[in-house]
Amino acid sequence: MLLTSLISMKYKGKDNVREYILEMSHLASKLKTLQFELSEDLLVHLVLISLPAYFNQFKQFGSDH
Taking the model in full, what pTM does it have? Predict the structure, then answer.
C-alpha cells in the first residue's frame, strides 16, 4: 500500500513543492522501516516523473545527473 501510494503520487501545484517532496521522502522512509529500501536514484526518479510539465527544466537536469 505504501509503495502504491508513493508510485502514484502526482504534484498538483496546490502546496509547496518542497513539502510535497518531503512527503514522498517520508513514505520512502516508512518503506525502509519495513525492509523495503528504495535507492536514492529511484526516489529522485519518482519525484521527477510526478511533477507537472512546468517543471520540465528540472526534469532535464535530474536526468543528466
Answer: 0.82
